[in-house]
Amino acid sequence: xxxxxIKDLHTFFxxxxxxxxxxxxxxxxxxxxxxxxVVGESGSGKSVSAMSILRxxxxxxxxxxxxxxxxGKNIQDCTKKExxxxxxxxxxxxxxxxxxxxxxxxxxxxxxxxxxxxxQGMKKKEARKKVVEMLAAVKxxxxxxxxxxxxxxxxxxxxxRVMIAIALACQPxxxxxxxxxxxxxxxxxxxxLKLMNELKKEKGTSILFITHDLGVINEMADxxxxxxxxxxxxxxxxxxxxxxxKYSHPYTEGLMESIPRLDxxxxxxxEAIPGAVPHPLDLPKGCKFAPRCKYATDxxxxxxxxxxxxxxxxxxxxxxxxxxxxxDGK
Length: 330
Prior knowledge:
The longest helix is centred in the middle third of the chain and has 18 residues, at 186-203. An 8-stranded mixed beta sheet has the order 6-7-8-3-9-10-12-11, with helices on both faces. Strands 2-1-4-5 form a 4-stranded antiparallel beta sheet. It has helices at residues 46-53, 80-86, 98-101, 108-120, 124-137, 143-147, 156-168, 186-203, 214-220, 238-241, 250-257, 298-302, 323-327, and strands at 2-15, 18-31, 35-39, 61-70, 73-74, 91-94, 174-178, 206-211, 223-228, 231-237, 308-311, 314-316. Helices cover 34% and strands 24% of the residues. One of its GO terms (cellular component) is plasma membrane.
C-alpha cells in the first residue's frame, strides 16, 4: 500500500527570464516500509519534487498543480500550521550537506532535543535522555560526550549521523534522504547506508532516497524512478533496472552503460551520454532527451512521449522502449 503518492505534480519557479518548469508532470509513489530511489543528473528535478512535498521551496517557487497524497490525505490542502506538525514528525528530511544543516552556534544536544520538545511535548530533562538514546541508536560512540559538542567538532560522517538522528527522532512514517552521502568518503558512505537500512527494518520507515549515484540506488532501493528534465522517464522495481531487460529508456540505458564493471574488458572505453541537460528555459520541442539520444527519430523531435505501462510495475516515457528494436532502427 502506498504511503505517499505524487500525482501529476508541476512545480514552477518564476524568474526574471521566465518560468522554470523544474518539475513538469511528475508521478510516483512510495510504499509503506519500502525505499523508492529517485535518480538522475543534476537539474533533473529530483530534489525539487521531494521538497515540494513539505513546501520547502525558495520564495519564487510554487506548486502549480498536482496532488500529494500522504497517508490518505492530500497535504496540498493543509494549512501552514498543519504542515508544521507534519514536518519533522510524520515526514523528516536528511539534507545533502550536514555542515550547513546543523546550526554552528548550538550544541548537538540543543538541536537534537528540539523535535522531542516541539513535537512530543517533552521537558528538557527528558529530552536530554532521548538525545543520548538517539545518538547511540545511530552508532555514535560516547553519545553523552558528543551531545555536549558543537558541529564543527565532529567529522563529516558524525555530523551526518546526527542529522539522521534528528530526522528519526519522532519515528517518522516517511524519511526523505536528499543525497545524504554525497559529501562523505566511500567507507563512511557505506556505514551510513548500512545504518539507514538497519533503521528502516527496525522502525518500518519508508524512505524516499534521492541521488545521482546508481551504485547507491542498487544497494538501497526497492523501486526506482529515473528523472530527466523535470519528468519521470522510467519507473520500475530495482531488480528490473539493474538486470538485463527487454525494455528500457535510452537515458537509463546510457546511465547503466557509463558505470565501470569488473567484467569490462581491458582497454574498452565506457560509453558516455553525449551533450548536457538542456537549459530549463530552452527545452526541446518533443522528447526532452532526443537531442542526446542516439536512437532519436523525427517523431521523437516533434512529439513528446507519455509515460506508459510497458509491463507489470514498469513504466517508460519513450516511443521505442524495446531495446532490440531501436538498435535495429525499427
